Amino acid sequence: MEQNSNKTKWKIVTLPRVQVDALIACFLLVRFGEERFPGIKDAEYLFWINIPEGKTVAELEKEGYILLDMGGGMFDHHAGLDGKSEKCMSQIVAEQLGIHKNQSIRKLLEYARRDDLLGKGTLSNDPIDRAFGLSGLVSNMNRALPDDQELIIKTVMPLFIAHHLEEKKRSEDLPREYEEKFRAGKTHEAIVQTARGPIKMVMIETDEIAMAGYLRAQRSVDLVVQKMSSGHVNIITQQKKMFDLSQIAAFLRMAEAEEKGTTLSIAEKDLGAAGRIEGVDEWYLDTRARTIQNGGVRPQWTNPTRLPLVTIGEIIKQAAAIKI
To answer: Which pTM does this prediction carry?
Structure first.
């Protein structure tokens, strides 16, 4: 398809009773197609069963019509294959836009393929999962809104946007930020010898709340010490490791009290108790989430710790060698 001028009013045309594959194809075009189709973010949506008589696909494309799954055009995944294809339309759109290798859309493309080619948009047999899975909801919307297909697209589009932003963060933004922090000396990796054997610890300075999850899931980090620009420090662990953080909490509280010049009224053996402790309420031990929070992701009225990050790291090493 030839690239039209910036004044072209694009029309995205798809079949009525819009399906998941078409919805994802529309999302990809609007989200990633601006360079090839300038102004496509403001495209009009049309719903045809067939192309108009007397018109060819080439003529319609020159007039700014982007035909999805019809007429044997560039985005018709049945074209030239006797009505059969190993690729769904979304995959073809992604390839034409040069984004098919983007990790941020990998799950979207797989979902479109599974739903369109295999008829298995929702794999679970649980009736609640099937009722509220996107494939089922789209089918319901088609029945409820037969005369307003565009509303279906505009309803589902924000869901794809939110999904893509999260996937982009995990696959692109967080890895890039981590490498930048590492080069800037704001990240420290260490193998900590503990009572349970060696574990991987990372200390990092960042306000990105998703960083700890990324480090645990993608870099197999067992324990993350995250310092925010506010000075608050949170300690997050791999929950499946079932770490006992009471000893670390006790050592942190003792060090915090000493730094503040506070005399604690609680017995030393009770310093590892869950929740907060009077006099050192900077540190909250959550035994269910297996975290030690200095305010969590929204510190609000919790004071930041007075302990330097390097000191916290040494405390963790000392305490973990006893119990974790």
So the answer is: 0.79
